[in-house]
Amino acid sequence: MLWFKKRPDAALPAAADEIVPAALPLALDGGVFKHFFTKLLENAGQDGGIENYLAALGAKQRVCVVTLERARDAAFSMSDIEALLDHVFTARRRLRPALEQLGAARAAALVGDLVAGAAPPAQRLQAFVDAMPGTERMDRESLKAATKVRRAAWDFAAELLHFSDPVKFPLMSRWVWDQGTQSGALRELIRGNDAMREIPFGNDPGLFEGARRWLAERIAEQGVYRDVHFWIDLVLAQAYTTYFRSVTAGSLGADFGRGVTAQEQLRKLLGIDATGSGRSRVKKSGIED
Fold first, then answer.
1. Are residues 122 and 22 in contact, defined by beta-carbon separation less than 8 angstroms?
2. Which of 20, 94, 134, 288 is the most buried (most CB within 10 A)?
3. CA distance linking residue 266 with residue 117, whole number of Å
4. Is residue 56 within a helix (H) or strand (E), and if so which, with residue range?
C-alpha cells in the first residue's frame, strides 16, 4: 500500500509545541478505533481509495495556507473569506453575513490574530468567536441566531487554525467534541458511551491534543507513518459519520444527512466535497432556506 512507510519512529512528524496534551479523564478504546479504521478503509476503497481522501485534505490545506497569507495585507477580501468558508461545511451556511458585517479589514485582522497571534490557542479561538456581531439585541430570536453564528464561528476558527499547520494544531471542531452537547467523534471512541449520561471531557485544546496523540499511536500500530495528521482527521470523521447515520436527526441538518452515501457524508464533514460545478457553497444571506 502506497501510504505505508515502514519506519519505527514517532507517528507525528513534529511535536505540537504550543499545546500541551492533557491526560484523558476517560480512556478511548483501541478496539473501537480499529473498527472505525477498518470501516474507513472499506468505504474509501469504494470511493477511489484512501489516497484520494489524503490528497483532497492536502489540497484543502494548500488553499487555506495561500489564502491565509493574504490576510496579512490589504488585499484580503470577502472573496478570500468565501474561499475559506467554502471548505468548512459546518460554517459555510451561516457565517458569511456576520463576517461581511465586520468588514474585510476587521475579518482579516481577526484571522491573522487567530493563526499567528501571540496568545495561547484557546484564547485566540475564543477571541475570534467573541468578535462576532449579533448580540446587540436581547430578544430570544436574536440571541438564538447569535448562538448559531458563534457555533459556526468556532468551527471556522478551529479549522483555520488546524489547516494553517495540521501537524502543530489538532482539529477542534464541535463535531470532534462539544462539551455543551456532549457529542462528537471522541465520544464514539469510548466503549459503552451509550450508557453514559455525561462524558468528563472539556473543550480545552489540551484534551484535543491528548486525544490526537492517542490516535497517532493507534494509527502507527496499523503501519501508517505518513500524513498521520490527516489520517487522524479521517478516522474522527468516520467515527462521527457512523454515529450520525445511526440516528434519525442531528445538529448538522438535512443538508448533511438526506439521501447521501457514507462516503459523501465524510467528504462533506471534512470540507473536501466537490460541487461538480465549481460554484461556491457559501450562503450569502442570513435567511435560512
1. no
2. 94
3. 31
4. helix 50-70
Q: Which residues, 6+ apart, have CB-to-CB distance to 31 below 8 Å?
A: 191
C-alpha cell of 240? 462521527
Backbone angles phi, psi at 224, to 5 degrees: -105, 125
Provide the CA 191 distance to its chain's centre, in angstroms: 23
Q: Could you tell me if 228 and 220 are in contact, meaning their C-beta atoms sit under 8 angstroms apart?
A: yes
Local confidence band at 64 (pLDDT 50, 70, 90 cut-offs): very high
Quote the CA–CA distance of 135 and 209 in Å, as a whole number: 31
- Kindly give, in sequence order, each residue whose CB lies less than 8 Å from that of residue 155, ignoring residues fewer than 6 positions away: 88, 90, 91, 173, 174, 175
Closest CA to 256 of 6, 89, 66, 18: 89
Q: Please state the pTM of the whole predicted model.
A: 0.87
Cα–Cα–Cα angle for 86, 92, 93, rounded to 5 degrees: 145
DSSP string, 17-31: TTSPPPPPSS---HH
Q: Cell 475570534, residue?
A: 128
DSSP class of 3: T
More confident residue, 149 or 70: 149
Q: How is residue 182 annotated by DSSP? A: T
